[in-house]
Design a protein that fits this description.
Layout: H1 2-21, H2 23-34, H3 46-57, E1 64-67, H4 70-76, E2 82-89, E3 99-105, E4 124-125, E5 128-130, H5 139-155, E6 161-167, H6 178-183, E7 191-194, E8 201-205, E9 207-216, E10 220-221, H7 231-249, E11 263-271, E12 277-278, E13 281-290, H8 296-318, E14 327-336, H9 346-360, E15 366-369, H10 375-379, E16 385-387, H11 395-398, E17 406-408, H12 409-426
Parallel strand pairs: 3-6, 3-7, 7-16, 8-15
Antiparallel strand pairs: 1-2, 2-6, 4-5, 5-17, 9-13, 9-14, 10-12, 11-13
Helix pairs in contact: 1-5, 1-12, 2-5, 5-12, 7-8, 9-12
Length: 428
C-alpha cells in the first residue's frame, strides 16, 4: 500500500511538473480562445468552434464537429452552432473503466460598456488575463484541454475514457449545446465536470425561468392622450407588483449551502414610438431564479397570476374595458431546472476536494450556487456531475458579464493541476 501511495504521489508531482513546463503554451491557447468573439446574441459561434478544432489538432486531438441545423439555430434565436466532442479512449470498451466528460461553453454575453481593455485583446497585466469569456468559460477550454494532455503525457491511463465537450449554448439555456448532443445520443458519459471556479466544488444550482411580457395599450398623439391607453403606465403598475414579489421571496430560503432565496430580475424594457406619442406597447424580459426546493410549474403559475392581477387592477382603476382594456401577452423564453446532487457524484467531489486541498492549500467546499448551468442537462439524464474549473472565489471577482472580465493566471495553472490529478484517480 505504501509503494502504491508513493507511486500515486510521484504521478501527481509529474502531472504538476508537466503543467508548469507547458503553462506558457496553455496561456497562449486561452488567448487564442478569447480573441475569437462569441457574442450571444447574435450567437455566431461556429467560427470559434472551427478555431478550437484547428488548434487542438496540433495537440493530436481530433474534434468531431456536430453542426446544429441552421433552421433550428435560427428559430432558437442564434446564428450558428457547431458543438465539438473530442473522445480519448484509453482501454477497450467494456473494460470497467468510466467515461469522464469535461464540458466548457464558448458562447458568452456581449462585452457591454465600461471596458478599459480590449474585450478581445486577451491582454495580460499583473498576472491577470483580461477579455470577454476569459473567466467564464473559455478558461476551462484551456484547463480541461491541458489537464487531458498532462494526463496522457504522464499517467498514460490503460482503461476508461475522457471526452472533451466544447459547446455553444449556455447563455440561451444549453438546449442546443450539450442538450442537443445528449438528445441525439452522441454522448452518454458516466461522470462529468463542467466549467466553474477553483475554490469550491458546486454540486447544486438554482433553476431559472425567463419570460417575455408584452403589454398592449393603444397608441395616441401626446396632444390628445385621452384617445389612447398608455401601455407604459400599465407597465409601471406591473413593475411594482413584480418587484414586490422579491420581498416575499426573502422568506423562502434554501437548505443548500451557497444558495439563499429566490429572486426576480427585470433585465430589459423596450417600448414607445416617439417622445410625442402615448406608448402603445411595452415589452419587458424577466429572469426568475428558482431555488432547488421550488417547483418550476408552480413558480411560473404564480408569476402569471401576479401579472394578470396587476393588469386587471390597472384596467379597473382606469375604467378601461372592451377594446380599450390593456392586454398582456406572456412568452416563456427559458425554463432551466435546478441541479440537485446525484448520489454517484461522490468520486468527483472526493477527487477534486483532495487535490484542491493539495494544490491550493485549502479544501474546496461542496456547495450550491445561485447560477444556472448546462450541468443540469447531464444530471437530468442520470449522469452525475459537478462544477469545477479555473476562476476566483466569486463571480463578482471575475467580472463575468461585466466590463474588464479577468482571470488570475495562477488560478488557471492550479485548477489545471487539480483537474488533471482528479482524472488520474477517476480513470484508475
Amino acid at each position: 500500500m505504501t509503494n502504491m501511495n508513493q507511486d500515486k504521489q510521484a504521478t501527481y508531482a509529474a502531472i504538476d511538473a508537466w503543467i508548469d513546463e507547458h503553462f506558457d503554451e496553455e496561456v497562449k491557447f486561452l488567448q487564442a480562445m478569447v480573441q475569437v468573439p462569441t457574442d450571444t446574441p447574435p450567437g455566431n459561434n461556429a467560427p470559434h468552434a472551427e478555431r478550437t478544432a484547428e488548434l487542438i489538432k496540433g495537440f493530436g486531438f481530433d474534434a468531431e464537429k456536430h453542426v446544429v441545423p441552421e433552421a433550428d439555430v435560427k428559430a432558437y434565436g442564434m446564428e450558428s452552432i457547431t458543438n465539438l466532442i473530442v473522445r480519448r479512449q484509453y482501454g477497450a470498451q467494456g473494460d470497467g473503466g468510466r467515461t469522464i466528460a469535461l464540458n466548457a461553453h464558448g458562447d458568452v454575453v456581449p462585452p457591454g460598456e465600461g471596458w478599459t481593455k480590449d474585450p478581445y485583446g486577451a491582454e495580460i497585466e499583473d498576472g491577470k488575463l483580461y477579455g470577454r469569456a476569459a473567466a467564464v468559460s473559455k478558461s476551462d477550454f484551456a484547463s480541461f484541454t491541458f489537464a487531458v494532455r498532462a494526463l496522457e503525457a504522464v499517467a498514460k491511463p490503460s482503461k476508461g475514457a475522457v471526452e472533451l465537450h466544447y459547446t455553444y449554448d449556455e447563455e440561451f439555456g444549453g438546449i442546443m449545446g450539450p442538450g442537443w448532443l445528449l438528445e441525439k445520443g452522441l454522448t452518454k458519459p458516466d461522470l462529468m465536470i463542467a466549467a466553474g471556479f477553483s475554490y469550491e466544488v458546486v454540486t447544486a444550482h438554482n433553476g431559472c425561468l425567463q419570460m417575455e411580457i408584452t403589454v398592449q395599450g393603444k397608441m395616441a398623439h401626446a396632444a390628445v392622450p385621452h384617445t389612447g391607453v398608455d401601455a407604459l403606465q400599465a407597465t409601471a403598475v406591473l413593475l411594482t407588483a413584480l418587484y414586490a414579489e422579491n420581498v416575499k421571496y426573502k422568506q423562502v430560503t434554501s437548505k443548500v449551502p451557497g444558495i439563499k432565496h429566490p429572486y426576480l430580475n427585470i433585465g430589459r424594457i423596450d417600448g414607445g414610438t416617439n417622445t410625442n406619442v402615448v406608448p402603445g406597447k411595452v415589452m419587458l424580459k424577466i429572469d426568475r431564479r428558482m431555488i432547488p426546493e421550488e417547483n418550476p410549474v408552480e413558480v411560473e403559475a404564480s408569476i402569471r397570476a401576479v401579472i394578470a392581477k396587476a393588469i386587471a387592477d390597472f384596467n379597473t382603476q382606469g375604467g378601461y374595458t372592451g377594446e380599450d382594456a390593456v392586454r398582456v401577452d406572456i412568452k416563456r423564453l427559458l425554463l432551466a431546472n435546478a441541479m440537485t446532487p446525484l448520489d454517484g457524484n461522490k468520486p468527483l467531489v472526493d477527487a477534486i476536494q483532495a487535490h484542491g486541498e493539495a494544490v491550493f492549500g485549502e479544501k474546496p467546499p461542496a456547495v450550491g450556487t445561485p447560477l444556472y448551468t448546462d450541468v443540469r442537462l447531464y444530471v437530468e439524464r442520470g449522469i452525475p456531475g459537478v462544477i469545477y474549473g479555473a476562476g476566483p472565489r466569486t463571480v463578482l471577482e471575475s467580472h463575468a458579464k461585466r466590463s474588464d472580465e479577468r482571470l488570475v493566471l495562477e488560478d488557471l495553472r492550479r485548477a489545471t493541476k487539480v483537474v488533471a490529478r482528479s482524472l488520474v484517480d477517476l480513470t484508475a
